[in-house]
Design goal:
Strand content: 5-15%
Shape: elongated
Strand order of the largest sheet: 6-10-11-9-8-7
Radius of gyration: 38 Å
Structural class: alpha/beta
Distance between the termini: 89 Å
Number of helices: 14
Number of strands: 11
């Protein structure tokens, strides 16, 4: 719409100038014209054509300027505007006494030319100073604006909103992650996830009911501990049947990250270009890596496949096979890692009692 308005203004303006331009023609020349109105229309038509060309140029320039302004951080726009206004004020203050001086009529054109020149110079100077020292000016106004400035410049990026699914809430590890401060940004719990938790809590199945109540309790604790971080979002989709499909769609619409521990949901979300943080993947990534020679305090829980072997487990469930460990069955003792094996079923560590290694 604005493009048509810009072009129309230039077409009408130059057509009007062309229509009235015949009035400045000397009278003796007009006496030789038999049809003045026809000449007016011809000149107006040429003016309209020139106006169309100028209007298209102005419209293209406007769109380029608009694109640059859209890409420009708001702080830069603000500081440049302030610098421009200050430059114009200084220019007018300097020109005021000059205009009061008596200037001969023969050189009266100097006044407007000087006004334009000084205004342009000081406007450019104000914008240049704003680009150089504008951020310092904003920091004086708001000392806490450094982070917002860096975000606006692209040096920092704001934390992406996370969306919690039902399984991740029930799992409970997200609460510990929040307590450690590793999860940044807002965390949204859609209304349909809350409804699913409520359905589980009201289920006739004892196991589902226990899971649902556990999830509600964890969610309540998280809201109490982080009231500004955990938010319930009322968004719902009546045309979507499953909660997983709703989560994927909601994540797409707000460009958020889906926080889950559901393997299948992670795969579906990845296929639909939704960013996913899987708590299980995080747990695997931060498991301690034990190298040969490392010492572990381990409790021997059962006998291994070989008669002299003992078996214990790390906190993450990794099985540790201890050679000559059967005699320590039921005891906790330091063991020294001898090797580690990654199998399809998981990781397995082999070790020996520290006493037998040092002996």
């Amino acid at each position: 719409m604005i493009d048509a308005v810009i072009i129309s203004i230039f077409v009408l303006a130059l057509a009007g100038v062309g229509y009235e331009a015949i009035d400045i023609v000397p009278p003796d020349v007009l006496l030789q014209v038999t049809n003045i109105e026809a000449v007016r229309l011809i000149i107006a038509s040429f003016g309209a054509i020139i106006g169309l060309a100028v209007g298209l140029t102005a419209q293209t320039t406007y769109r380029r300027l608009e694109t640059r302004v859209r890409q420009m951080p708001i702080e830069v726009i603000l500081t440049r505007a302030v610098g421009w206004v200050i430059g114009l004020l200084l220019a007018n203050l300097m020109l005021a006494p000059i205009f009061l001086l008596p200037i001969p009529k023969e050189v009266s054109l100097v006044k407007p030319m000087l006004a334009v020149l000084v205004s342009v110079m000081f406007s450019f100077l104000g914008v240049t100073l704003a680009d150089t020292h504008g951020r310092t000016f904003l920091r004086l106004i708001n000392p806490n604006s450094i982070e917002s400035l860096l975000v606006a410049e692209g040096t920092l990026r704001p934390a992406i909103t996370k969306i919690l699914d039902t399984s991740c809430i029930i799992d409970g590890r997200i609460e510990e992650l929040l307590n450690t401060g590793f999860i940044e940004g807002q965390i949204l719990i859609p209304q349909f996830v809350l409804q699913e938790l409520q359905l589980l809590a009201d289920s006739s199945n004892d196991q589902k009911r226990m899971r649902g109540r556990r999830g509600l309790d964890i969610l309540k604790r998280m809201q109490t501990a982080f009231p500004e971080k955990i938010l319930i979002n009322p968004t719902d989709y009546d045309d979507v049947n499953t909660v997983d499909a709703k989560l994927v769609r909601f994540s797409q619409e707000i460009n958020g990250t889906l926080l889950t521990n559901d393997y299948n949901l992670s795969k579906v979300a990845n296929l639909q270009k939704v960013a996913v943080l899987n708590v299980n993947d995080l747990a695997k990534a931060i498991r301690p890596i034990y190298l040969p020679g490392d010492t572990i305090d381990l409790k021997i829980l059962k006998q291994g496949k070989e008669p002299e072997q003992g078996v214990g487990y790390l906190a993450d469930g990794t099985m540790v096979v201890v050679e000559e460990g059967y005699e320590y069955l039921g005891d906790e003792l330091p063991v020294v890692v001898t090797s580690a094996l990654q199998t399809s079923a998981g990781r397995m560590i082999f070790a020996k009692p520290q006493a037998s290694v040092t002996a």
